[in-house]
Amino acid sequence: MTKGGLSQNKLQYPDTQIIIFAREPVYGQVKTRLIPALGAAGATELYTALMDFTLNKIHTYNAASVCLCITPESRTAFFLDRYPFTELQITKQRGDDLGHRMFNALKQSLNHFSRALLIGTDCPFLNQSDLEQAIAALDTHDMVFSPARDGGYVLVGAGRSVPDSFTGIDWGSEQVMRQTRKRLTELKISWQELAFQQDIDDENDLKYLQHVHEFSDAFPHILNIINGYS
Asked: Which residues are CB-contacts of 163 (< 8 A; sequence separation ≥ 6)?
């Protein structure tokens, strides 16, 4: 049973919500760091495939309530048409920077659920076991993170509202996780870190996609695009 009396009896973790940050895949405005390697069309197709893969995978797990939190300029109707999943919640991101947007999304979720996890769409390696480990970590810690090899993180979760934990961070830099650890220590917030993950942000990351067999089987044309530019 979730806070506020909401019921998700069919879910494995009815007291948990998984938030997915996404944006509408507008040509030339997504995966911009990959445009030099794949072209604008290729980068847009890759982003769309990663988003589809993430949404469908999380939906299939049926582990927890799912909230798709989209950028303010994205059209809600686009996502409703693309993902006609039962009980998929769609909200808009609020805040001046990534830290504020993540904090607001987690806080809103925690108004109704005991635990909230937030992920993006650029880490196809995240699986059900990773999510279950993150949920379990929140039984004994305030927050949980899955660090990325580029210095950031691909998953953050919270079991309570954590004011100021996302402030003073150089978002987009290689210092994100290191600065976050320092910030959490200063605030005396307990956290657990899971295994490092590989996200797909720049040209050097593309080679890892072939190791995600579920993704390559579902989107073989994406690997053809990548191989065509390599």
From this structure: 103
- The pLDDT tens digits of the residues spanning 140-192 come to 999 999 999 999 999 999 999 988 999 999 999 999 999 999 999 999 999 99
In the chain, the domains with their CATH numbers are 3-229 (3.90.550.10)
Instruction: Summarize pLDDT for 58-102 with one digit per residue, the tens.
Output: 999 999 999 999 999 999 999 999 999 878 999 999 999 999 999
User: pTM for the complete prediction?
Assistant: 0.93
How far is the C-alpha of 175 from the C-alpha of 152, rounded, in Å? Answer: 7
d(CA 99, CA 169): 8
Query: And the tokens for 210?
Result: 């072939």
Cβ-contact 47, 31 below 8 angstroms: yes
The C-alpha atoms of residue 146 and residue 135 are separated, in whole angstroms, by: 12
Report how far apart, in Å, the C-alpha atoms of 13 and of each of 62, 135, 145, 166 are: 9, 8, 19, 26
- Classified as helix, coil or strand, 68 is strand
In angstroms, the CA 98 to CA 100 distance is: 6
